Amino acid sequence: VQLVESGGGLVQTGGSLGLSCVVSGSGSGYYAIAWFRQAPGKEREGVACIDSSAGPTIYGASVRGRFTISSDNAKNTVYLQVDNRTPEDTAFYSCANTIVPTILTSGMDYWGKGTRVTVSS
């Protein structure tokens, strides 16, 4: 299973940012895809997860209300939208697949290489 993230870059505070995670490979009929982020000097944080039915979602407490996870199963792609960007959203964002929907790092099977997001004030 391969996961490839895109959409990162240098952006300014405010507005929205969209990240994409394309899933492919043998066994890529994933059960759930989760997004994580790791800010400089901090531990990796689970931010959102969506299951393969594009139904139930899970959000981390620190992002609930500003982040939205969605999926397009026809494109094997999961999206993460970040609204009202702040410098605190600066981090390395990565996606991973899991059997049981969760935002716990230990629950993931395969990881993408990630994409860096820098929000300037």
What would the average pLDDT be, to the nearest integer?
92
- Low-confidence parts, pLDDT < 50 over ≥5 residues? none
Helix count from the secondary structure assignment? 0
As a percent range, the share of helical residues equals under 10%
The global form is globular
Report the structural category: mainly beta
Estimated share of beta-strand residues: over 45%
Largest sheet: 7 strands, mixed
- How many beta-strand runs? 11
- How large is the radius of gyration? 13 Å
Order of helix and strand elements from N to C terminus: EEEEEEEEEEE
Distance between the termini: 37 Å
Your description of this structure?
The protein is an all-beta fold. β5 and β6 form a beta hairpin. The chain has no helices and eleven strands. It starts with a strand and ends with a strand.
